[in-house]
Write a structure and sequence with these properties.
Layout lengths: L2 H6 L7 H27 L3 H25 L11
Helix pairs in contact: 2-3
């Protein structure tokens, strides 16, 4: 494997800094999901309510995708996209 291919693969062990960043990403998505859900519940405009629900689902999907990438034994072909 040449150097360019090696640099494109994520490391098998992550640094403390990377771990903290991943933890922050999970927290940001969870908080955004909760806020969107709360605001959608308070909203009376159906168009805005639907958009807030969509945003909440998007953040939920991002949260789940990050978790999936962090599962032990997952074979990754590249970085999180």
């Amino acid at each position: 494997m040449d150097n360019q291919q090696q640099s494109q693969m994520p490391p098998s062990v992550i640094s403390t800094k990377d771990h903290l960043y991943l933890n922050d990403m999970l927290n940001w998505n969870l908080l955004a999901m909760k806020k969107a859900h709360f605001m959608a519940q308070q909203c009376q405009d159906q168009t805005l309510k639907q958009e807030l629900d969509r945003v909440g689902h998007m953040h939920h999907d991002h949260y789940q995708r990050i978790l999936k990438h962090l599962q032990p034994g997952q074979q990754q072909s590249g970085y999180i996209q």
